[in-house]
Each structure stands twice: as C-alpha cells, then as structure tokens.
Amino acid sequence: MKNFADRLAAKIKEMNNPTVLGLDPKLDYVPVSMREEWVKKEPNVQTASAMAILQFNKALIDASCDIIPAVKTQFAYYEMYGVEGMKALKRTIDYAHSKGMLVIADAKRNDIGATAQAYAAGIIGETTLIDGSDEAMTGADAITLNAYLGIDGIEPFLKVAREAGKGMFILVRTSNPSAGDFQDLKLEDGRTVYEAVADKVTEWGLPLIGESGLSSVGAVVGATWPEQAKTLRERMPRSFILVPGYGAQGGDADSAVCAFTDRGDGALVNASRSLMCAYKKRNDLEEEDFAAATRDEAIRMREDLNAAIEKKLNI
Fold first, then answer.
1. Is the pTM of this model over 0.85?
2. One of 90, 108, 280, 312 is an active-site residue; which one?
3. According to the model, what pLDDT value does residue 138 have?
C-alpha cells in the first residue's frame, strides 16, 4: 500500500484543505430529536445510544467528505458506551472509508512487546483469526501514540507502517494546560523533554519518508503552543504534524499554521467540538439542520487556515 504520508498529502492537496474532523461524540452533542427517535426504535438503551451516535457521525461525514480529507476518531468516546459503542466506532471508520476519507485512530496507546504488537495489529494492522486468515479489526489508517516507553513501544507500529502503508502521530507537545509538568523539563544536554521526543520522531521517521518528502511517522503539537510549534517544525522538517486545540480549545489559524513547513504543507489541523456542535451556535437553523452547520463551519475553517497559510508564505 502507498506510503501513508503520501496518501494524506495527496488528499489535502486535492481538497485544498489541511483539516481533520474529530469525531469525539457525546450523547448531548446529538440532536434531541435523533436521540428520541432511537429511544423509540431500540429497547436496549446501550444500543440506542450507540446507534444515535453512529447516525450523527454518518450525517457529519456525508456533510463534509467532499471538503475534509480525514476524520479522527477518539476511542474513549466510543469505549465509554461499551460493546455497542465499539461497534459504532468500527462502523464509523468503515463509513468514512466508503466516502473516501482517511481515518486517524486517536487511541494514544503506550505499551511494549507483545502488548504493543497486539495494539498495532488491532488498530492499524490485521489480526490472525482461528482459521488462519488475517482480518483488519479496526482498519484505521494511522494512530496516535505515547512514546514514553521509547522505541520498545513504537517499533511494533513502525513495522505495520512499513508493511501496510499506515502512519502514526506521536505525542510531542500537547495542547492541555498542564503539559509542561513533564514536557518542559530540562535534560542534562539542555533540551526539553518535548524536544528530545521530537528528535526521536525525526529519527524514527527517516525510513518512512515518502515521495511527498514527508514521513508517515508524525507528531502531535497543540495549536495552543505556537512558539514551541515553530521550533519543533525546525527539529522535525519531514514530519507530518497533527495539530489539536483549534477552535473550542482556544487555538486559532495563525497559531495552527506555525506547525506548517515553509512550503505551506506538512500539517493537519483538527477540530472536534467546533465542527460537531456548530449547530448549537446557530440561531438561524433548526436542530435537524446540524449537518449543514458543520459543513458551513468546515468551509469557514478551511478558508481561515488557507488565509493564514498564505500570510505565512507572504503570498
């Protein structure tokens, strides 16, 4: 399969849109009418909850698949609804693929050895079944990872990436307020912890650089830390950077584009609540028109980011 970074770069270029739709659904994000509909249809409340979320996700995918290149599914928002929630996750991933979108599994896994191999197989690879056949269980194109355990926790994912054209985004400088508790600590050589992780991301990614000049081993750098993003871009010139924190978490377009290269590429900006819940800020639309509100906000975000990129490039 083609290099993940090349596939992602091509989709971004095709749509002229370096954004990803975060599908991190809670039931109170789902319109009341849709929730009530499933309560009437399905007596099992866990199943009804999961089906409402799935219907919500599919509507958002339908509304944005021709303008947004990828979705990011945060596993916790499905796991908390149990088995039925995980079924909704799998069906969401399959549906996004059917609409031509790439899928990033926001799973933030962190383990070693056989356990890391199992995570890699289950989320971005294939699992061997009882009859000897191999099957993709989740089927995501890329995964978010925590590198705290070093290469022992990353190598199983690198193996799948090499063999199956998959990718990963490793936590480097996150967008949460307490990120500096550990990430900003200074090492003996003068680097911060996040800079040391960035250097490893660059090292691990060298064998997975595609024709685009970008690596399938990427990084997560929050939009709320623009100055750090500038220095990290210099340390990771070939890495795709996933940028959370845009919109509801306070990051704006000018901050987000600090993670882009001097060519105006190499980054993907995520928005979750600001896209999923766009309808809640619209007084001119009925609740049932939630997908239209998401599409309008996705277009606004695309234009906002592209204007910021042009500004960065002095076009």
1. yes
2. 108
3. 96
